[in-house]
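writing this on my phone so excuse typos. first protein, seq and then structure
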Amino acid sequence: MRSEPPTSDARPELVLFDVGGTLVLIDPERFNAFTAGWDLAAVPPDQLVDAHFQAMSDYSYRLADGERLGFRWWVEHFFALAGLALPSGLVDAFRGGRGMWNRPIPGARETVLDLRERGYRVAVVSNSDGTVDEALDIAGFGNLFELVIDSTDVGVSKPDPAIFDRALDELGVSPGSTWHVGDSHYHDVGGARAAGLAAAVLIDPLGLGPLGQLSVRSIVELSELLA
C-alpha cells in the first residue's frame, strides 16, 4: 500500500466506487471467445489484467498532459498491450459489446460487504455505457449499493465533478464526508478532487500512479486503509 494522508482525518460517511478496474474486470473467457471470432489467439487472464491497468495508467497520464484522446484510444492501446492485432472493425465491435466487464475482482464483494457492516454507506459512480447495473448483477454485487450512477444514463462523465455532485445530492452527503475509489488517476482521482471529496483512492496494482497518490494495490486493502 502506498498512501498520503487524506484531506480529512474524519471517518467518511460514504464511499463511492468506480466499477471497471475497481470492482470488476473483463471476463477472460468472454473476451477470448470474442477475439476468436476475429481469428486472434487467446490471451492469458493475467496478461489481460496487466494490459488493462497499464492502458488505463497511460491513458490517464496522456489526458492529464492535455492530449485530446477518446476511449477508442484506450481500447486500441489495451489490445496492443495484450499482444493482439486490430483487424478492421474490431475496435468498434468490442466497444459495442455487452457482458464482458462482469468478472468480479477477488475480494471486492467481501470488501463492500465489510464496509457496509462497519457502518459505511456505499454507492457507485461509473463511466459506463448504460450497462453498469447489469454488470454488477452478473458479478454478484446486486443490491449492495445504495445508489448506482452510470454516466450514460445521466449524461455526464468523470472527471466532471457534476457526476459526483449528483450522487451526493441524491444521497444527502457532503463532499467532506465522502471518499471515492477508482482505477484512473485522471477520471477518478481528478474528478473526486474537483468535486471537493475528502479523499480519492487509486486502485494501482502495477504501482504506476503519481508519486504521493493515496493508493492500494487491490481493493481488499481498502478495509485496512479505512480501519
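second protein below, same order as before
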Amino acid sequence: MKRCIIIGNGKPPRKNIIEYIQKEGHSTIICADGGANSARKLGIIPDFIIGDLDSISAKTLKHYKNISKIIGIKRQTDTDIEKCLKFSISKGIKEAVLTGVTGDRLDHTFCNLGIVLKFFNKIGIKIIAEKSLLTAYSKNVRVKTLPGEIFSIYGFDEKTRITSKGLKYPLNKVSLPFGKKESTSNVALSNLVNLKITGGIIFVIRDFNTVKKNGFF
C-alpha cells in the first residue's frame, strides 16, 4: 500500500486509465466522497471511500457498504481530496495519482492544483486530466522524453529558477512567475530533459498517452 489512486468528484477518468495506473503499481484505490459515484459507473471497487459523504449517492453508498471501507470525516477545514491525502500519508503511502479532480467547477480545479503544492513535501502527487499528465518537481531532475514531445513548464514565483537542457527553448536560471511568464508548449529535443530547479516547485505538463505509450510513467 505504498502507491494509490484517488478518484475525485470531477470529470471521471476512463476505466482503462485506472487499470493502467494499477498495473504500474498504484494498487490501492481511494474515492473522495462523490468520486465513488464515478467508480460505481466504471465498475471499479475502491478500497476506501473517504469524505464528509455529502456527494455520494444513497445508491452508491448501499452498493459499496459491504465491499469497501467507508470513512466519514465531517471536518470542513479540508476538502475531500485533502482528507484522502492525509489518510494516505498516515498509512505510509508515498505516491498518489489524482484523477477526477478537474471538470466543470473551475474553483475545484484550481483548488486541486494548489493541493499538489500544499502536499508536495509529504507525498508525491501526479494529476491525470483529459489527455494531460501533471507532475510537480523541485531540485534536479532527469525526465525521460521522446524527441518532439510537447513539454510545458510552469512556475509560481520570482524566486523559483529553472535551468534546462534538452529543450528547444532552453531556460537559463529563468523564473516563471504565475500570471507573468511560462514555458508552454516547449519541445523535447532528445530522450532526456534535465531540469535544475532552485528556490521552489514547478509543474510539468505532458501528453499522457505519449508518456504511457513510451513507458515514461
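The chain has a mean pLDDT of 95. thats all i got for now
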